[in-house]
Design goal:
- GO terms for molecular function: siderophore uptake transmembrane transporter activity.
- One of its GO terms (cellular component) is cell outer membrane.
- Belongs to the TonB-dependent receptor family.
- InterPro entries: Beta-barrel_TonB, Beta-barrel_TonB_sf, CarboxyPept-like_regulatory, Plug_dom, Plug_dom_sf, TonB-dep_rcpt-like.
- By secondary structure, the protein is mainly beta.
- It has 3 domains: about 20-95, Carboxypeptidase-like, regulatory domain (Immunoglobulin-like); about 105-230, TonB-dependent receptor, plug domain (Ferric Hydroxamate Uptake Protein, Chain A, domain 1, Beta Complex), CATH 2.170.130.10; about 235-795, Maltoporin, Chain A (Beta Barrel), CATH 2.40.170.20.
- The protein has 5 helices and 44 strands.
- The strands form 7 sheets. It has a 22-stranded antiparallel beta barrel. It has a 5-stranded mixed β-sheet with strand order 8-13-14-11-12.
- A hairpin with a 2-residue loop joins strand 33 and strand 34 (about 635-655).
- The two termini are about 45 Å apart.
- The model is unreliable at about 10-20 (pLDDT under 50).
């Protein structure tokens, strides 16, 4: 009986194996005959599918014999359904027709560089971005792009994170979403913590290094990031993504879309939640977000409404780690009060139109509104009543001038406006001209509340101890175009005028009156050329100018009569880029010459707050090299390296002196010093190995050279160089009833490197044996050792 059952089982297995079929084919563009890469091919009745490779080929295995319904879809093309009978013999070639509906690419084209634009840029598509997207913030996802250094206050890449490009921090990096400015109007920064899991709603992004092309919003003073959110999908879909990792990190994301309804309408939505305890003690993050998009898609017009929001609560780890604790207590956190938290919500509304007028004209316009509000809460031990504008408390004969206080500092702001552009392309294709611009207003309240005091005195709960308001109008208009002078040779010009009116009034948090008004008008020209050789190389060179107004703190911290001058950047870019079969590369030189760059010098204002001052001459100069090569069918090697010098020609440092009975500041003058946080070498490398279909194994390395914490080139005030290695393995299958199932394992810092990519420093003199003694205190933001994230992604 056992032998009979065993033989029967083998027979059934053999019959099952005989009944399984495979299907191979190719998907082409019907209009050009070119293969379509990444097209989705789905056997609807059997729940199995595939995606086309770089040659347009696909293969589906484990299909049952008989009739099947094959559905093929690709963005920008009409979906195709085909009935087939298996087994199928012969070459299966399916051709997709380009859709008659207008695509969404023009939404961002006005602010982007094209293949012929003579500037340095990189475009990252959704597939590449999603490889690392397991819940960490966008800066961490961009860690391996050229000239980028990333950091995280909590040490795990979730919560308050940031990046620098060519040494320029986020206040000097212009960010737009669908062409709409995202930088805070006052600090010029972008706070990624307010946009949790935003990468899950990004279709593609472009990084322009240097001044780049004219865009909306804050001046590009080091780089720009231009995001395009998810574009239309013609077929209904649903997606569930879950991740778990070190430090009790979790990410839950649900996405769904209707596909194209009645060949005209589509609705897409995403809901996300990310939590983490953080590497640093108590540095937890609790992040929530959603994204909803509804669109009308016609042959000549697209109208789209995007609504997205992020809400965050993070425990503060802003203080950093003192140098004395680097070796034995790297997770130490200065804050211990249980609600020492940052709480903020930001809601975005975008109404976007793009249209085609005849065969030569395209236009784009958008209205936007952002509402932000929130506070951070702090416990303050033994604070003076005078710091809050309060009188001393008298109890009997005792005069009490200080007490323990819990305070909240609030932001409540509105940002709204409109952008527009119109694009003309001549019949012969020689002229490509864009006229565009925007007008935006920021209206923000800053105020503080005392919510508890051990000795209350003359104050009530929710009393505001300071309040000030600022209104900033930012307008710009630009005209840019490319002219093909001869085959392969293109001339580029870009002229922008930007006007800013900034009005502020009220009482600052240090009890000073900060009433004032400033206006600026900037002219930002850009010129260049590109030459495309028949062999595929594109050579380019450009000269660009950017001007930038001071930040809010430069107005409020400096005496109103001593407002710093605006900054100016003259940028030269020159390089070559090419895509040749299995090999791609980019090599470029840059020179960024700053006039009146604003930096911290140690100088203080009349109430002891540190202020930024102009330095007359400084520069960044470097060479960036990047490339990738497919050395074999299963192996791809890639990498990039930046070698640079970043110098201030003359710099004066101010140091607080407490060695005498009367406080003073001591000044020291330096020549040709390094700009803070600007390493001379940044490099990364990736190795990808695909031993079998659907399995990808990646090794990723990153090197960052020594960085100085201030502008004195003092080795005692520096961050050590570091070299990290990450490991990622991805496996994707098409099981029955799913379009795809993908498992991702990411191991960060696999060799447990102890490193700190960010920090700060300050020095002061105290009495000593020889008269006075210099004390320097360095603080660091350590990154986690070996840690992991494991993700499961299901698509329906």
């Amino acid at each position: 009986m056992k032998k009979l059952m065993l033989n029967l089982a083998f027979c059934l297995l053999a019959v099952s194996a005989w009944a399984q079929e495979s299907l191979k084919g190719k998907i082409l563009d019907a209009s050009s005959g070119e293969p379509l890469i990444g097209a989705s091919v789905w056997a609807e009745t059997q729940g199995r599918g595939s995606v086309t490779d770089e040659n347009g080929n696909f293969s589906i295995t484990k299909l049952k014999a008989g009739e099947i319904q094959l559905r093929v879809s690709y963005v920008g093309f009409e979906s195709l359904k085909q009935s087939l009978t298996l087994p199928y013999s012969g070459d299966l070639i399916l051709k997709l027709q380009p859709t008659e509906l207008l695509t969404e690419e023009f939404i961002v084209s006005a602010t982007r560089a094209s293949a012929t634009t003579p500037t340095t840029f990189q475009t990252i598509d959704k597939a590449e971005l999603s490889k690392r997207n397991l819940g960490q913030d966008i800066p961490i996802l961009l860690n391996f792009t050229p000239s980028v250094v990333t950091h995280s206050d909590a040490g795990a890449g979730i919560g308050y994170t940031g990046l620098r490009i060519r040494g320029s921090d986020q206040s000097r990096i212009n960010v737009t979403v669908n062409g709409i400015p995202m930088n805070d109007a006052e600090s010029h920064g972008v706070f990624w913590v307010n946009m949790p899991d935003f990468a899950s709603s990004v279709d593609n992004l472009q990084i322009q290094r240097g001044v780049g092309t004219s865009t909306n919003g804050a001046a590009t003073f080091g780089a720009s990031l231009n995001f395009q959110t998810d574009t239309r999908q013609d077929d209904p879909y649903a997606e569930i993504s879950n991740s778990v990792g070190s430090f009790n990190s979790w990410r839950h994301t649900v996405k769904a879309g209707t596909g194209l309804l009645n060949n005209r309408f589509a609705v897409d939505a995403r809901l996300s939640k990310i939590t983490s305890d953080g590497y640093v003690d108590r540095a937890f993050s609790d992040l929530k977000s959603f994204f909803v998009s509804a669109g009308y898609y016609g042959e000549n017009h697209v109208l789209k409404l995007n609504v997205f929001s992020g809400k965050e609560q993070t425990y503060q780890s802003w203080w950093g780690l003192p140098e004395s604790k680097l070796e034995d207590d790297r997770t130490w956190n200065y804050y211990t009060y249980d609600n020492e938290t940052d709480n903020y919500q930001q809601d975005h509304y975008q109404l976007i139109y793009t249209g085609k007028i005849g065969s030569n004209w395209k236009t784009n316009a958008a209205l936007h509104y952002t509402y932000g509000r929130g506070y951070y809460e702090q416990y303050r031990e033994d604070d003076d009543f005078a710091s809050y504008g309060l009188p001393d408390v008298v109890i009997g004969e005792e005069i009490i001038s200080s007490t323990d206080i819990i305070r909240r500092r609030w932001l409540d702001n509105d940002f709204f406006g409109g952008i527009a552009s119109i694009n003309y392309i001549s019949d012969n294709g020689k002229w490509d001209v864009i006229l565009g611009g925007g007008a935006n207003r920021y209206d923000g309240d800053h105020f503080g509340e005392i919510i508890w005091a051990r000795i209350a005195g003359a104050t009530q709960i929710r009393d505001q101890y300071y309040f000030n308001n600022a209104v900033k109008d930012d307008r710009n208009i630009y005209l840019k175009g490319t002219y093909e002078l001869s085959p392969g040779l293109n001339l580029f010009g870009d002229l922008q005028v930007r006007n800013i009116d900034y009005t502020f009034y009220g009482v600052n948090d240090d009890q000073r009156i900060v009433d004032g008004q400033q206006s600026y008008t900037f002219f930002n020209p850009k010129f260049g050329f590109s030459y495309e050789q028949s062999s595929g190389e594109v050579w380019y060179a450009s000269y660009a100018v950017a001007n930038r107004e001071p930040k809010r703190s430069d107005f409020t911290d400096n005496p109103i009569t001593e407002i710093p001058k605006p900054e100016r950047l003259n940028n030269i870019e020159a390089g070559v880029r090419a895509q040749k079969g299995r090999f791609s590369y980019n090599a470029n030189f840059y020179y960024m010459d700053y006039k009146d760059q604003l930096i911290l010098t140690g100088q203080i204002n009349d109430v002891g707050a540190y202020i930024r001052e102009n330095v007359a001459d400084s520069y960044r100069a470097g060479i960036e090299l990047s490339g990738a090569i497919q050395v074999a069918k299963a192996w791809v090697l890639g990498g990039n390296v930046t070698f640079s010098q970043n110098k201030i020609k003359n710099f004066t440092e101010y140091i607080d002196d407490y060695s005498e009975s009367e406080f003073q500041q001591i000044s020291n003058t330096y020549e040709n010093t390094d700009i803070a946080f600007s390493p001379n070498t940044i490099a990364s490398a990736t190795i990808e190995y695909k031993p079998i279909d659907h399995l990808s194994i990646n090794w990723m390395s990153k090197y960052v050279g020594k960085q100085y914490l201030d502008n004195t080139s003092n080795d005692a005030r520096s961050l050590d160089s570091f070299f990290t290695n990450d490991f990622r393995i991805s496996y994707q299958v098409q099981p029955r009833f799913f379009k795809s199932l993908e498992v991702n394992l990411l191991v960060n810092n696999i060799f447990n490197e102890m490193y700190e990519p960010n920090g700060y420093t300050f020095s002061y003199y105290i009495p000593g044996d020889s008269g006075r003694e210099l004390v320097t205190e360095n603080y660091y933001y350590p990154m986690a050792g070996t840690n992991f994230m494991l993700g499961l992604n299901l698509k329906f």
